[in-house]
Amino acid sequence: MSDLRVNKIAGAVLATGLVVLGLRTVSEALFTVEQPEKPGYAITIQEAAAEGGAAVADTPPDWGTVLPIADVAAGQTVSGKCASCHTFDKGGADGTGPNLWGVMGRKPGSKAGYAYSPAMTGEAGKIPAWDYEHLYEYLKAPQAYVPGTKMTFVGLKKTDERVNLIAWLRMQNDSPAAIPAPNPAAAAPAAAEGAKPAEGAKPAEGAAAPVAAGAAAANPPVGPTPAATPPSGAKPNPGA
Ligand code: HEC
Q1: CA 41 to centroid of ligand 1, rounded, Å
Q2: CATH number of the domain that 126 lies in?
């Protein structure tokens, strides 16, 4: 008798153990905590931006569109951030950085009498002259764009500041660079919308002039304006 009791108790304990184990497995399956492969926070540094300067979210604007409406006066104000190192007037002295009169269209690192870093003179091997595009990229993050440059300026992060400055910088020149024609690609989507209402008119006309009574009843509303036309068109026909 007592043996049987012991067996029962042992059985109950075993069963409980099994249930607990089973629950654990189930709950583990249900509440899986995803472990990161490497512990710690993921900090992604975009190397690509440093390499080419062309960051994904900050592509140069369409110059033909933005330059005519740029705020040149605001650009001159921005140039105050450069004034501790650069002069912009014609024949102005070099400071920490070279005089920048006529820099647009000039070969990088080529102002006579100024001692550039090898990085900047080396830039001349990559681009023939400073233009809108390259000034835009360079001024965003000079040291990322020309690694090793001795221009220790953090850069202008705001795109409108750069555009306005470039619009002003363009004028500090004996022969300001031409403004390219605007690229009309951006204006295209609006035209496609206009076609829809014209198409909608055709089905309505077809329904208003049914050839046979049966046909009119069989395929009533084809067009997007069914409410008024089919009922009034259908009523006279069955009598005839
Ligand atoms: C802290 C000083 C400093 C500031 C501020 C600074 N620059 Fe410079 N800049 C330099 C130096 C130094 C160089 C020469 C770089 C080299 O040789 O690597 C230079 C070079 C340049 C060049 C290339 C010139 C050439 O002849 O190829 C341009 C363009 C330029 N700076 C524009 C600007 C503009 C625009 C600003 C303001 C938004 C600015 N810099 C702010 C120090 C500065």
Answers
A1: 36
A2: 1.10.760.10
